[in-house]
Write a structure and sequence with these properties.
Layout lengths: L8 E12 L12 E11 L16 H12 L7 H13 L4 E10 L9 E8 L2
Antiparallel strand pairs: 1-2, 2-3, 3-4
Helix pairs in contact: 1-2
């Protein structure tokens, strides 16, 4: 039995609000929509914080900036497409073993808080 198990480590961004050009309908293409983004990253358990530096972990400032830049880069027809692009950014980052991404359009239906999509993938 291993006497020194490695901790399961995650970082996350919860309910990150972006204004996004998204949707398939003509009226959706006229103005940006409010979208909440959630990102959860499973980190390599071999990453250890020994010197209290950002170089020892995944920088969530980089992650936030990447999502903002992506949200301003183009019109997206589908939440699925937008989430898959965020997923690719996350999985390309060293130290990330898996990622769960979700988006929620908050202004679609008056009788729903939000409508959304979620995707999860682990590295092969």
């Amino acid at each position: 039995m291993n006497s020194d198990p490695k901790p399961h480590r995650k970082i996350f961004l919860k309910d990150m609000a972006v204004s996004l050009s998204i949707g398939i309908h003509d009226f959706e293409k006229l103005k940006r929509q409010n979208v909440l983004i959630n990102i959860e990253l499973d980190l390599d358990p071999n990453l250890r914080i020994l010197e209290d530096t950002i170089a020892e972990t995944v920088d969530y400032d980089f992650l936030r900036t990447s999502v903002v830049n992506l949200s301003n880069s183009a019109h997206f027809h589908l939440q699925e497409t937008f989430c898959e692009k965020i997923l690719a950014l996350c999985l390309d980052h060293e130290g990330v073993l898996a990622a769960r991404i979700s988006s929620e359009k908050t202004d679609v239906y008056p009788d729903c808080t939000s409508v959304g999509f979620e995707i999860f993938q682990a590295k092969a």
